[in-house]
Structures are given as structure tokens and as C-alpha cells.
Design brief:
TIM Barrel, two-stranded parallel ribbon, 39% helix, binds D-gluconic acid
């Protein structure tokens, strides 16, 4: 029996794709990640270099997205560009990001603006990053600065995946730098980011027209038989804490790719050799999104959700369509079960720089030639646009 699943359609629902500045713009030389990529013994496979030159080519990127029938674009503002030295604001860079917003609006695309997507200005990182005495004030000042370009913007993400940042900081503080995985988070960093987030929400709400939230990397923690308590203990500092903070927000960004099974020893259970893996080495598990939405709904007590990332690293675009079909089926079921979801933003619009893994894992709906920067939409882009227009999953 085929189940009849209905999905909402554009324009009432946000259907689009996500990116992040460091991963697509290129030349982000004043950021801590650029420094990390270029440090002796760097764990990064390669430099982000020119990335995919979206800093200059964003009009084409937005046009391709809009032409496919999508109506939302999530991108990030790069703090290291807007405030290249402490207290020194670049009006030209603010104007650049305002042009990105204007380009979206002119194309009928709703901009979803992330204020901080992992990368920090070097000056901020060098004085201790989130652990510096006045880190929250410095971040709040940056947020206030960016408000000057947020006219007509309705969706703002304050901090992307603070839970992953806390895990990265947890790993580095125990001097197992870059053993990122799901390391025990630095709980001080979690609290500082929560404080910074609340300050940003307050500033953004002051504008009157902005709805603010943060995004949480959802790992769909599952318990192996008998490991329920171990699962809960593992999940709390890595995920639940951040969802609890989101209870007071206007929306919460759900970012979902995979699941993690926790064994009775309280550690993730490695998956077997028979499991299909993606180019990031993750289990191919499209059901993750529906489960992540239901979990987030429960933990936040029903705060509206925006899928701010969901996708798969694969060189086979048919697998991307298959994965996304499974994910959207899960989303449709979650919605019919009472989850309030306001949009689906696929990760990613473009093949891009995947942090330590470099350019090899391709998540994009659009391929990019690394030498000429020529964009070539994959079939999945038109496919997602059709889903957005019709609310139907073909096949
Ligand atoms: C993250 C990000 C993205 C990634 C994506 C795929 O969570 O790491 O928000 O920057 O590229 O999740 O790994």
C-alpha cells in the first residue's frame, strides 16, 4: 500500500538551500579557519583558497536557485570581513552583504541570514575566542553592527551549531586537537554561547521584524538495547542542552544528516561494513530528518522549526535524490504528526569546502568547476524545485 504523503508548497513554505561564507566565498584570510588551514601540521586536507568564489558569483548562485523554483537561501555573514580588526567596521563589507540580501529579495527569494557559521575573526580567536573575558560583548557588538543591513530580513540564525563548536573546543582543550567526532563538549563554552545567543536574540527582536533562533546539529541518538540511560547521558550535553536553550526562541534550526547509536558503555557503536556510507564516511540514513524533527519538537516543547541543513555527500546525484526523498517523507510524516515546520533548506546549494575534508565530499545541488568556477546544476536542483512547486515526491 502506498502511503499518501503531502508536503507544503512554495511560497507559503520556505523551500531552498543553505551555504556558509567560509565554505563558498573564497579568500577568507582574516579568519581563524584560514589560519588553521595554513598552520604547520594542519589537520585540513587542503586550503579553502578561492573556495567557489561565491563572494563574487553570488548573483548567479541566487539566480540558479530561484530559476529552479526555490524561494529561500540561507547564507552567512562573515564576521572576519565585517570587523577585520577589533572595533574596526568595514562599511564596504556590510554593503556587500546587503547586496546579497537585495539580490535575494529581487529574485523573490527569502534570505535566511546566519551571523556566525563556525569561523571567527583572527583577532577574536587570538584573544581567547569564546573564553575571552568580554567575548559575549564583542559578539553582541558585531550583531548590533549587522542589524544595520537587516531591513526586510525576517529569519536570522545567531550561531550555527554551537553544540559542534563546544565539542570541538572540548576536544582541543584536552589536547586531542581535531579529534572532533563527538568529543565530550566543553560545557563552559556551551554556556557562554548560550549567553551570547540570548544577547543576540534580544538585539534582533528589538528590530521588530526579525525572528531569531540558532541551529543545532541533530545526531538522532539511538540507544542500543539496554542503553537508554547511557544514551540520555550522552545526548544531554551534546544536543539536548542546546534545544532547551531554543525553547525561548522564535524558531529552531534543525540540521540533520545521520544517526548515532549509543552502546551500554556510553560510547557510539561503530556501524558494520554492510552499511552504505557517504563521502563523509557517514551512514546513509535518510530517516534521520523525520526523527530529528520529532525529537526537536519534543525537547523544545513545540518551537517552530526550520530545517536549516539536510543533505548527503555523494558523487551520485541519483543517491542525493533518493536520500532527499526519504528525508522529505520523514518530514511529511513528522508534520502530519503535529510538528510545526516552516521550511526546508537543503545542504548545500553548491559543492563547497567541507572543512577538514577539503573539497572532496560533494554535498551540492550545483557542481562547480574548481578552475573556472563554472556552475553546473545537477538534476537534483530541478528535482527539488519541482517538489517545492508541487508538494509531491516523484517516483
Ligand atoms: C556543519 C555545517 C556545515 C557542514 C555540513 C556538512 O554542521 O558542519 O553547518 O558547515 O558543511 O554540516 O558536514
Amino acid at each position: 500500500m502506498t502511503e499518501q504523503l503531502t508536503l507544503p508548497t512554495a511560497p507559503g513554505f520556505l523551500w531552498g538551500a543553505s551555504t556558509a561564507a567560509h565554505q563558498i566565498e573564497g579568500g577568507n584570510v582574516n579568519s581563524d579557519w584560514w589560519a588553521k588551514e595554513h598552520a604547520a601540521g594542519t589537520p585540513c586536507a587542503e586550503s579553502s583558497g578561492d573556495a567557489v568564489d561565491s563572494y563574487h558569483r553570488y548573483p548567479e548562485d541566487v539566480r540558479l536557485l530561484a530559476d529552479a523554483g526555490l524561494n529561500a537561501y540561507r547564507f552567512s555573514v562573515e564576521w572576519a570581513r565585517v570587523e577585520p580588526a577589533e572595533g574596526e567596521i568595514s562599511r564596504a563589507q556590510l554593503a556587500h552583504y546587503r547586496r546579497v540580501i537585495d539580490t535575494c529579495l529581487a529574485a523573490g527569494v527569502t534570505p535566511v541570514v546566519t551571523l556566525l557559521h563556525f569561523t571567527l575573526p583572527r583577532w577574536f580567536a587570538e584573544r581567547g575566542g569564546w573564553f575571552a573575558r568580554d567575548a559575549v560583548d564583542a559578539y553582541a557588538r558585531y550583531v548590533e553592527t549587522v542589524t544595520s543591513i537587516l531591513d526586510d530580513v525576517r529569519h536570522v540564525v545567531t550561531i550555527n551549531e554551537p553544540n559542534i563548536t563546544s565539542m570541538m573546543l572540548g576536544a582541543s582543550r584536552r589536547s586531542t586537537l581535531d579529534a572532533v567526532g563527538l568529543a565530550a563538549p566543553d560545557e563552559a563554552a556551551s554556556e557562554i554561547q548560550a549567553t551570547a545567543h540570548r544577547r543576540a536574540v534580544e538585539v534582533l527582536r528589538g528590530l521588530g521584524h526579525v525572528r531569531a533562533g540558532w541551529t543545532v546539529a541533530n545526531q538522532v541518538f539511538q540507544a542500543a538495547p539496554g542503553a537508554e540511560a547511557a544514551r540520555d547521558a550522552y545526548a544531554y550535553p551534546r544536543e539536548d542542552y542546546f534545544l532547551e536553550v531554543a525553547r525561548d526562541d522564535d524558531f529552531v534550526g534543525v540540521q540533520s544528516y545521520l544517526r548515532t547509536i549509543i552502546g551500554p558503555d556510553g560510547e557510539p557503536v561503530p556501524f558494520g561494513d554492510d552499511v552504505e556510507r557517504t563521502l563523509t564516511g557517514w551512514e546513509y540514513y535518510p530517516q534521520a530528518l523525520g526523527e530529528a524533527l520529532e525529537y526537536t519538537h519534543r525537547l523544545t516543547g513545540g518551537v517552530p522549526m526550520l530545517v536549516t541543513e539536510n543533505g548527503v555527500a555523494t558523487a551520485d546525484d541519483d543517491r542525493r535524490i533518493d536520500y532527499t526523498t526519504g528525508a522529505l517523507e520523514g518530514m511529511a510524516r513528522a508534520m502530519s504528526g503535529g510538528c510545526r515546520v516552516e521550511g526546508y533548506l537543503h545542504w548545500s546549494l553548491l559543492d563547497n569546502y567541507e572543512w577538514m575534508s577539503g573539497f572532496a565530499p560533494t554535498f551540492g545541488l550545483i557542481a562547480v568547476d574548481r578552475t573556472t568556477f563554472e556552475r553546473t546544476p545537477k538534476p537534483s536542483l530541478a528535482w527539488l524545485g519541482k517538489v517545492a512547486r508541487t508538494g509531491e515526491l516523484p517516483g
